[in-house]
Model the fold of this input.
Amino acid sequence: MADPRIFPVNSAVDHFATIGAVSTLVLAANQRRVDADFVNDGDEVCYLARGNPAVMGSGIKLTPNGSYRIGTNNLFYGAIYGICASGGLNLCYSEGFGP
Done:
């Protein structure tokens, strides 16, 4: 969770994205983002990319049940993309917003 003394989290949206075998937009760019958590809810590896289309074997690797966090130490406002080998993978996420 983001440090509320630095980036207050006023609200959050919990959702999911279905990752395809081609690069899929997971989360749109958001200048109000203060944190985001992603959890691979599928049974295969997926890859995330920040600001660019996702590519198999490149970027942020999430194993099954693996997670990735955007917080105050690596805050990124841009779009997040995902990809997996077979398609149909469920990626859960929660995005926090500031004022």
